[in-house]
Predict the structure.
Amino acid sequence: MPTVGVKRDLLFKALGRTYTDEEFDELCFEFGLELDEITSEKEIISREQGNFKASSASDVILYKIDVPANRYDLLCLEGLARGLQVFKNKLDAPRYRCVSPVSGDRQRLIITKETAAVRPHAVAAVLRDITFTQERYDSFIELQEKLHQNICRKRSLVAIGTHDLDTISGPFTFTAKRPEDISFKPLNQTKEYTATQLMSLYKTDSHLKHYLHIIEDKPVYPIIYDSNGIVLSMPPIINGDHSKISLQTKNVFIECTATDLTKAKIVLDMMVTMFSEYCTQPFMVEEAEVVCPDGRTIIYPELAYRKEKLSAEFINRKVGINESAERIAQLLTRMCLLSQTTGVGDEMEVEIPPTRPDVIHACDIMEDAAVAYGFNNITRTIPRTYTVANQLPLNKLTELLRQDLAAAGFTEALNFALCSQEDIADKLGKKISETGAVHISNPKTAEFQVARTTLLPGLLKTIAANRKMPLPLKLFEISDVVLKDQSKDVGARNSRRFCAVYYNKTPGFEVIHGLLDRTMQLLEVKAARGEGYHIQAADDSTFFPGRCAEIFVRGKSVGRLGVLHPDVISHFELTMPCSALEMDIEPFLGHTTETFLTHDVPTQETIQHQFIPCVESQQTRPSHPPSTKTLFGDMSTQAGLKALDDFLADRSYVEGFVASQADVAVFDAIPSPPPQTFCHLRRWYNHIKSFQLERTRLPSAKTRFVLPMAPPTSTNTTSEDEIDLFGSDDDEESAEAARVREQRLHEYAAKKSKKPALIAKSSILLDVKPWDDETDMAKLEECVRSVSMDGLLWGQSKLVPVGYGIKKLQIGCVVEDDKVGTDLLEEAITGFEEYVQSVDVAAFNKI
């Protein structure tokens, strides 16, 4: 989102009142904006360049406001203040109009056919009798820059030129010439330069160098002249110094050259609508003529208003409110969308002004109605559809493999999905045409030219960057590669691969082979031909001849393993032998990994249709629950259901993160489906109901949530079989016996209280990581040991290499659990920000 910086006092002056920071933050939220930061020019420069450079900067308070990327009308103080005033009903949305010159003909801009090779389009307009102040002038220039960075795509689509009309004379000519034929004095320069010289001059300019590539390689450069041959501008690079505007400028000629005519019209409309309020006749814009190469004459700016019709029911349904058409029309009018009812049912007519090119669909109008209504005022409701999330099988398999491969002693690496052509072809002894790689059409660097077709180069480059680490180096990666596939609509598909490498003084083929066997064991694939897996000799230019094998699973090739060819090793600047394994893991899922979303069935639809119920055994769902008493209360009462609903508000299951017998027990304790008012309980109830056919296979519960039924109340009538023939005649405890028992209990309690309480202690091993290899590790350890707490005892320490010459401090300590926690320790150590980057718990053992 673009960030607009406005001076607080100027904004409040434009709004007609002052706000506290909290009040303005709330106003921005109501309007759909966000007050990102409250700062000043001095604070910004101090933060970026230091206090010395900021000493002469202004202390004026600035508001940094985040605005939506498509709200070009809010990119300046004028548009922002105007929008907020209309939103607060303090101002009616202005009406913008195009007018002809009071005297004389319209200004004319003639486009020649030579521009077709560089920037074929242009539009123009005039702001007549405008009054600039320093603040207005700054805002005018800043809006151009904001538009250049946003809709103009860094001037590649549109370039804006503004000129003092009183210093030039029309008609103006927009043409294209060879660089050596163009000569003029550019803005803020003291002498003339040719276009070729300007390109060299601005290569070191921090601002303009980013735009040179747009026309640098073109045979001709675009240029705009007036009738006297004076250069107005060389778009999209620089304007001429002769026609630059100043605070004394009264008439501004605005031209926009472009490769996209629609964007040019929008940009021109934004410039003139935002600043026409400073003209003698506010919101009046003087027209200009543009003569196209084919002879057509078009009048700009268009400042077109258009009308759309939609129903109040559509907005109410999409937003989740229930308002009348008249009320919704008022809400839209507050968003500068003048609206009124048509009288045909609940239909409304909405007028979209030229300042709102972001409104292109009925949904955009609906969104503005929601903003004006207030998102916090929309009643919270439960969606009519419910779904149960589930992990993608391929990702679940990937996570399981990652854990076990790490347990096998291999370290996981994560590399870029893009690489150079050389990485996947030349360095591996292959031709780029054989790889079937997907190429990037306009790569920014040579390192990111294609999408990788193999994981091997990334791991070898990781090893090359960590050659100083102790041997052996054992790395693996499970990630996607991109392969061409004409059967897909995009012509390519992702394929999940597993790759592992072993780098040591010896090739270690047996290590990689053992890792393959372990992986197959985890995937429950036996070592056998046919339905199992086997390997057989293969030839591959990446591997050493005679040291390469192809992996077959159920008769299908899934990958290769072997000892890498010495040329491949040297290409990646390695000096020792290396073995590698790479295979596709998608075939082990047994089905395609590309799953599609199913249609969500509304809950009311499932109620209306009588679906055929599944046949259940008596054990699946008891006809009469054994008990309705649970830890949450009686499930036959509203109070018990309410307690369970509150419990499930932020939980998916009664116990843990998967369905279990605890859910089944509580489900059976509910005598009938809960009412719709208990939304969380209803969601859980329908979910657990879907497990009816597999409820017996769910994991057991760790806690008993359903209480046993109360025993039947005994009656005074006692049968002969229930008479205790051996009982005492006096069932009551004598007073003496009670006194003796109480005395013994008291003595036992006193004796127990004299025993020292058992103090729970833990042994903790901490990894303290510095910022870089220049950190003073002795000083870092001194800071760590300076942390003193009751119940903390520091132990031995050592420095452990991490990589790139960086070492981490590994230090042990013993703590009393009731007094010192790991969070407290980490917070205290990370307080030494000058030395400590992070603190991790490497080991934790109870003593």
Remarks:
- Residues 735-753 form the longest helix (19 residues).
